[in-house]
Design goal:
Fumarase C, Chain B, domain 1, Fumarase C, Chain A, domain 2, Ribonucleotide Reductase Protein R1, domain 1, two-stranded antiparallel sheet, two-stranded parallel sheet, 63% helix
């Protein structure tokens, strides 16, 4: 394919330089945004009497045909082209001749690519937000199913206090709601049009940048043409938001790995989202959760790679900035795949409440409630704390749990104990007495679920 920039040079480069310089293999993803942007540009050129209405209509009609043919598979993108912008313009010029050459009036590839990537990432951000909402909805449904399933809550990975599985799951919905907010906030700064900045200094033509921005759904225009072509903050910001999203998915994945192990056995993963071992027939491996956990590092790498690329660039455009696309495209694709897999994995997993409750009982996580019981009977807290610790030690020695320890043994430690101790240390009672907003009681979890579902409805 001929070089559009022939003139100052012969346009002849070595094959290895052509391959090194080419971005078509990854920026071809933006064909729809590139063609849509060009249609708006042609309309603006006509509205400003820079080209005739007939020429604009001819360009727009042909671009529409090219888009339809790419979408249908009738026209294949030529992977020997330098980039998607040159490919589309070349096909346009081949089909309508000199009129097609007028499309590039009052723009540069610098502002054209900046436009395309903003439009592409705007679409990607919307899709990622929608996938995150689907995951939140699935987690909330699962939390509702197990809102009264008692399990140990952990600090330092040590059993700490009784909670419900539903309460634990709802913590992840709160994280993911913040992820949606971060992506939405990123889109606000992304949704500013650079087109019309040209190479870096603007143009001598009487263009209407606001007209073009409005046709493409932007909220405004970049107010400095140098910044317009050199800004990639929005790429780094989206990568930052996706890195935090992946961190949340990774934390959830880590717990799924733990919970599905024989040591915990709190959950059972569907066969559809596990694999077996090539040598150990008893194994059921949580590979999907492990892969999500592993791919988090990949998205972190995309963020650090882009920041490193940008950190030393002088203004305005530099070819280094071609490196923005592979990293941010990879992160978007990775996040979308991980969200889809996580949604399927969570929707099909089942809890094992009896194992959760057994772990809660054997962890003596109701010992604080036993101490509170004694305090309510008139003992100072420090005395109640010491007695409770001695009773736990006795239970460990005899293999009892607080719920089954005979009252006579309780009374041997303090005459303050009576039959009421069993209600005080009952795990269900311990959970449902925690009535503070955001707490683990069933009523509180139901309130959290209702809040999350209302947020999803209003998004």
């Amino acid at each position: 394919m001929a070089k559009m920039w022939e003139g100052r040079t012969s346009g002849e480069t070595s094959k290895i330089a052509d391959d090194f310089n080419s971005s078509i293999k990854f920026d071809s993803k933006m064909y729809r945004q590139d063609i849509t942007g060009s249609m708006a540009h042609a309309a603006m050129l006509s509205a400003q009497n820079i080209i005739s209405a007939e020429e604009s209509e001819k360009i727009i009609d042909c671009l529409g045909e090219i888009l339809a043919e790419i979408e249908s598979g009738k026209l294949s993108v030529d992977m020997t082209a330098e980039d998607i912008h040159m490919f589309v313009e070349q096909i346009l010029t081949e089909r309508i001749g000199d009129t097609g050459k007028k499309l590039h009036t009052a723009r540069s590839r610098n502002d054209q690519v900046a436009l395309d990537i903003r439009m592409y990432l705007r679409d990607e951000a919307e899709e990622i937000s929608n996938l995150t909402k689907e995951l939140i909805s699935v987690i909330a449904d699962k939390a509702d199913e197990y809102k009264d399933a008692i399990m140990p809550g952990y600090t330092h990975l040590q059993r700490a206090q009784p909670i419900t599985f539903g309460h634990h799951l709802m913590a992840y919905t709160m994280m993911l709601l913040r992820d949606i907010d971060r992506i939405a906030d990123c889109k606000k700064r992304m949704n500013i049009s650079p087109i019309g900045s040209c190479a870096l200094a603007g143009t001598t033509y009487n263009t209407d940048r606001d007209f073009e921005a409005g046709k493409l759904g932007f909220d405004g225009i970049c107010l400095n043409s140098i910044d317009g072509v050199s800004d990639r903050d929005f790429c780094a910001e989206l990568l930052g938001a996706l890195s935090i999203l992946m961190m949340h998915l990774s934390r959830f994945s880590e717990e799924i790995v733990l919970w599905s192990s024989w040591e915990f056995k709190f959950i059972e993963l569907s066969d559809a989202f596990t694999t077996g071992s090539s040598i150990m027939p008893q194994k059921k491996n949580p590979d999907m959760a492990e892969l999500i956990r592993g791919k988090t590092g990949r998205v972190y790498g995309d963020l650090i790679g882009l920041l490193t690329t940008l950190k030393g660039l002088p203004l305005a455009y530099n070819k280094d900035m071609q490196e923005d696309k592979e990293s941010v495209f990879d992160a978007c694709d990775t996040a979308k795949m991980c969200l889809r897999v996580m949604t399927g994995m969570v929707s099909t997993m089942t809890a094992v409440p009896e194992n959760m409750k057994k772990a809660a009982q054997s962890g003596f996580i109701n010992a604080t409630d036993m101490a509170d019981y004694l305090v309510n009977k008139g003992l100072p807290f420090r005395d109640a704390y010491k007695i409770s610790g001695r009773i736990v030690a006795e239970c460990i020695k005899t293999g009892e749990v607080l719920e089954t320890l005979p009252l006579s043994v309780y009374k041997s430690f303090s005459d303050k104990f009576d039959e009421g101790i069993y209600a005080a240390v009952d795990l269900g009672s311990c959970v449902n007495r925690r009535i503070s907003a955001g707490g683990t009681s069933v009523a509180s979890v139901e309130s959290q679920i209702a809040f999350v579902k209302s947020m999803l409805k209003n998004e």
